[in-house]
Amino acid sequence: MSQSPDPANDERLLAMLQQSFANLGATPAQARVMAEQLLKRARQVAVERSISEAEAMRELLAKVVSGRKGEYGGPPRSDLG
Question: In a 10 Å sphere around its CB, with 0-12 CB exposed, 13-18 middle and 19+ buried, how is residue 3 labelled?
Fold first, then answer.
């Protein structure tokens, strides 16, 4: 399940995520915000689904990468018609 946050570990993780988002084309400021939000959401998903934060992070990152490639469409939108 969810682990208690470790500020030093969080900073290392945020730096890695930030670099990943920068590699996908985000500006440094955008990458930092995206990294913070992804970490926050991974923790929420881990609690909601009773899975590890690492598993939640893997799933969310897979969606980000798929979305960047144009492969992830998300839920159907009814307002397109």
Answer: exposed
Joined together, the tokens standing for residue 77 give: 């939108």
- Which amino acid, 16? M
Q: How many whole angstroms separate alpha carbon 11 and alpha carbon 81? A: 44
What is the per-residue pLDDT across 5-56, written as a single tens digit (0 to 9) for each? 677 888 999 999 999 999 989 999 999 999 999 999 999 999 999 999 999 9
Q: Contact 53/2 with Cβ under 8 angstroms?
A: yes
Number of domains in the chain: 1
Is the Cα torsion angle 40, 1, 4, 22 positive or negative in sign?
Answer: negative
Query: Which domain, by its residues, includes 21?
Result: 7-69
CA distance 64 to 38: 10
What's the pLDDT at 2? 44
